Amino acid sequence: MKLEVKVWELMARAGIRRQKELAVKANLSEALVSKLVAGNMKGIKFSTLASLCEALDCEPGDLIKIDSKAS
Q1: Domains of the chain (ranges plus CATH)?
Q2: Strand partners, 65
Q3: What's the predicted TM-score (pTM) here?
Q4: What is the DSSP string of 11-50?
Q5: Which uninterrupted H or E stretch holds 66?
Q6: The predicted structure's pLDDT at residue 71
Q7: pLDDT, position 18
Q8: Cα–Cα distance between 23 and 10 in angstroms, integer?
Q9: How many angstroms separate the Cα of 64 from the Cα of each of 4, 39?
Q10: How confident is the model over 24-67, as pLDDT tens digits?
C-alpha cells in the first residue's frame, strides 16, 4: 500500500502557486512542504495533516490518496 499526498492539486484549487506560500499559510517549514510535494515522505503527522487541511480548506480524505496495489 502506498500513500500519496495530493498537495499540488489542492494548492491549485486554493490559488496557492508556490510552496513557500503554502509553508507560511500552514505554518510548516519549506523543507517539509517540499518533501510532501515531491512525495518523499513515508508518513505524515496528524498535526501536519491538520495544518495542511486548514491552509488548503480541505478534509484529510481530499489530501491523501491510498494506492492499495502499490507495494
Answers
A1: 2-67 (1.10.260.40)
A2: 4
A3: 0.84
A4: HHHHT---HHHHHHHHT--HHHHHHHHHT--S---HHHHH
A5: strand 64-67
A6: 58
A7: 97
A8: 14
A9: 6, 11
A10: 999 999 999 999 988 877 788 999 999 999 999 999 999 988 87
